[in-house]
Amino acid sequence: MTGTMLRRLTAFFALLVMGSAVNAQTDPRAFPSLAKRPAETRDRSIPPPAPVEPAAIDQALAAQVERFSSEATAADSAFQRMLSEGGRSSVAAGASAAPASESWVVAQSTISALDSARYDSVAALAALDTLFVERQVAEDAARVAADLIVIDPARLRVLALVDAQNDALDALRSQLPLP
Fold first, then answer.
1. What is the pLDDT of residue 81?
2. Are 173 and 112 in contact (CB under 8 A)?
3. Where are the domains of the chain?
4. Mean pLDDT for each 10-residue chunk of the chain (179 residues)?
5. Which 3 state secondary structure label does DSSP give 155?
6. Which region holds residue 101: left if phi is over 0, alpha if psi is between -120 and 50, else beta?
7. Is residue 1 classed exposed, middle or buried when 0-12, 13-18 and 19+ CB atoms within 10 A define those classes?
8. CA–CA separation, 88 and 124 (whole Å)
9. DSSP 8-state code for residue 137
10. Which one of 5, 23, 45, 104 has the largest count of C-beta atoms within 10 Å of its C-beta?
């Protein structure tokens, strides 16, 4: 019996070791390749490409970006005004109320109104993001550089406005008990 058990265990371990070796050969992720990568084989004596000088600013694009930026600023002003003129106090009153009570419903309505007030800033951010992506596919690197110089600062500013609005709404929502 001991001999049979020993032969079975030996066969089992042999299969286990062979299976591990086969898996290591068929799975390229098992061991990293030692082959040179393209970055390691490039000619380092070639100087990097010269920086691209941006083209002239596209005035139509600049006007479009300014319009989106103005819309976002106006929407943020409306949002901030609603928030300070009773938005916070309305939600604070509903925070201690039972779900579905009148003050809780008023607080939920206030949050919905605040969310609606910021619609134009979210839409402006979406439009600026679309412009940013669309303008990156031009074949003229100078044109791309000029367009992104116009779009990116406005896009980042509007993104910061929308992020601040999201944070304010999240803080208000977290005060209310769930139904």
1. 96
2. no
3. 2-41, 59-175
4. 71 67 56 75 74 87 97 97 92 90 93 95 96 90 92 97 96 91
5. helix
6. beta
7. exposed
8. 25
9. T
10. 104
Q: Are 157 and 144 in contact (CB under 8 A)?
A: no
* Cβ neighbours, 10 Å, residue 143: 16
Do residues 123 and 158 touch, judged by C-beta distance below 8 A?
no
Residue 65 has, within 13 A of its CA and on its CB side, a CA count of: 24
At 16 the pLDDT is: 66
* Largest CA-CA distance found in the chain, in angstroms, rounded: 92
SS (H, E, C) 66-119: HHHHHHHHHHHHHHHHHHHHHHHHHHHHHHCCCCCCHHHHHHHHHHHHHHHHCH
